[in-house]
Amino acid sequence: MPPTVAVVGGGISGLAACYHLVRAPRPPKVVLLEASGRFGGWLQSSRSAEGAVFEHGPRGVRPAGPAGAQTLHMVSELGLAGDILAVPREHPAARNRFLYLGGALHPLPSGLGGVLRTVPPFSRALLWSALRDLLTPAGTAPDESAHGFAQRRFGPEVADLAVDSLCRGVFAGDSRALSVRSCFPALFQAERERGSVLLGLALPHGGVGGAGPEAGLARRARAERWSQWSLRGGMESLARALVAFVSPRGAELRCHTPLTHLRHRRGQWQCPQCPLLSPQLTVPGATLTADHVVSALPASALARALPPEAEPLARELRAIPAASVAVVNLQYEGAALPVTGFGHLVPSSEDPALLGIVYDSVAFPEHDGTPATPGAASLRLTVMLGGAWFQQSFGDPALVAPELLLSRARAAVSDHLGLAGTPRNAIVSVQQDCIPQYTLGHWERLERIQRFLKEQQLPLSLIGASYSGVSVNDCIASARAAVGQILGSPPEP
Hints:
Elements lengths: L3 E5 L3 H11 L6 E5 L11 E3 L5 E3 L9 H13 L6 E5 L3 H4 L1 E5 L2 E4 L3 H6 L9 H10 L10 H9 L1 H16 L8 H4 L1 H10 L2 H6 L13 H8 L2 E6 L4 H11 L5 E3 L6 E4 L14 E5 L2 E4 L2 E4 L3 H7 L5 H8 L3 E12 L9 E3 L8 E5 L1 H4 L14 E10 L2 H5 L7 H16 L7 E12 L5 H14 L4 E3 L9 H16 L6
Parallel strand pairs: 1-2, 1-13, 2-9, 6-15, 13-19
Antiparallel strand pairs: 3-4, 5-8, 6-7, 10-11, 11-12, 14-17, 14-18, 15-16, 16-17
Helix pairs in contact: 1-12, 1-19, 2-11, 2-19, 6-7, 13-14, 14-18
């Protein structure tokens, strides 16, 4: 009888783990447990009656790097290659990004000209920040805040405006609290290897090689110079395709099945004579036994399910916080943007509550649907609110009134973009604890977690956004790596 692997959490990480498990030459029995009534986690797309697609979570994936190539291979094997919507690097949605500061939109500098001349809102040319990086000695601290790192290497304006906004856009987090080592490992490593961020990024390094020869969609993405991609039916199409792939291959998928308790058989968490006793998973009305557990739950959710004997692990997991984000999707007809690009970010000094606005129609006009008035232009936007500032701005994410968030989003769109009309469609989603926050010392916490799992010889793997990357690619890559360790060899590409 094949061993049983229980995957807990049916978001993209858990589904990707199932995908790699069922593709093994000798696949184990796979059981996926999901607490909610749907699979896909933060991959959430909805469609209006007119065919417009709205993303309430991730809205695009970058194709670059080994992880990006592996995701594209998965997409191809799932039969979704024909549904790809690609944005080339020359597209305005790839080239143009803005900051909203002082009541005005400012294009972020790009190209040599943007570095050599002074471009508002910066008070001097970024060339001086580049020179500062080249002349500043490498840091020696084992970790540093993203803001502190940027200020030390590039100066206060880059830290206060660019890096502050970047952390809000990627992590919905505070650059003064986030770890540069964990959030931006390439920047941290570049300084350590070359003594300069710019030199470290520009020069070859002795890191581990890529994922082998590119093939299929990855080769096409490179040839066509993709910046990002989505799917014709929205990003949730990826989750639906994974469900359709793994179900007929033997994976048992259960919705409405939250994990309430995880323990070893006979109540023993560790037994020196029998350290690999099969874990028991308690769910409403039943107890399941597995040979290995893959947790794709948020760190805090897994902590709540652990027994008292695993308190050292639970304590580390509880110390990984997460930020909540209000996602407000708006669609206007007969409206036009004053600028063209991906969107704009808002520094925390300008408006803590407002993270930024994404111009969805610029990147993916295919998602605009059919206009109510033939020939009328359709414009989809997404306003992001809250993040690390949610509580102080709006109160409890579980109790905030959707009307308040909608009003705040419409005011921002009016003030920033001059769109004062009534939107044709408006959807408010509060995504509670959706983006883990890698705070200072996160890397040490991960080391202690892995040390505990190894010392206790626990048949438990931790995957997902809580640990080593919050992007879709990161989550899929963590699932693939964990399955490789379980099977004893990396999954076939």
